[in-house]
Amino acid sequence: MTVRWVTALLDSPEETAAAAERFWLGVTGTRLSPRRGAADELATLLPPEGDPFLKVQRVGMSVPGGLHLDLHVDDVRGTAERAEALGASASYHRLGYVICGSPGGLTFCLVGNPGRRVPPAPGWPGGRGLVDQVCLDVAPRHYDEEAAFWTDLLGWERRDLGEHTEFERLVRPEGAPLAFLLQRLDDEQPTVTAHLDLSCEDRAAETERHRALGADVVDVRPGWTVLRDPAGRSYCITGRRPGDV
Q1: Closest CA to 132 of 212, 28, 232
Q2: CATH fold label, 5-111
Q3: Which of 29, 53, 197, 218 lies most in the core, judged by the most C-beta atoms within 10 Å?
Q4: Buried b (16+ CB within 10 A) or exposed e, 48-71
């Protein structure tokens, strides 16, 4: 079974959550849904067109990387059992979802109700920009097991990126909002984390737009720019054009 819809959840501590929500609403051109959850901690970023694939969540303690994922599947329990057979941990809940941990410790949830229509890339004065990829940051000791796990669980084609030997891509099926990039880190870290990547038509203009919204530039590389949002969460603006992956 192939996973055809993925939602990324931006997990922010209470003290930075409001600023982070304003920032990502500005970055994506979305509006905030009504809050839900026992403490009104969860909300969805609603695009003008298409189905949502980004959510914000206020958390009581920091989540490594500040991001976790929802995989939308038809058979939640069956997929959870398959994930466990592939090396994941799983905690079953009565509300129709399962909280899992990848072999390297990245939190993800298995849920139902997939989206069906990917929102188009919004346009800005500097050109279009779109959140369209999640990058898994994997320590060397976890990489082989983690890459095999996600390839098998998602059912997506795995490709290397030529001269960029530290990266591999899991090619999303048509109609999926987020591609997966696997990054082999140089150094060890306790657990696998994830961050968001954006594609755009003008990386310099998109970077300045994000700075005006409250981001800090951390590093500029030949193919991407590393930034931090107001919650201290890292993400990248890449040189890919919307629709490239």
Answers
A1: 28
A2: 2,3-Dihydroxybiphenyl 1,2-Dioxygenase; domain 1 (3.10.180)
A3: 53
A4: eeebbbbbbbbbeeebbbbbbbbb
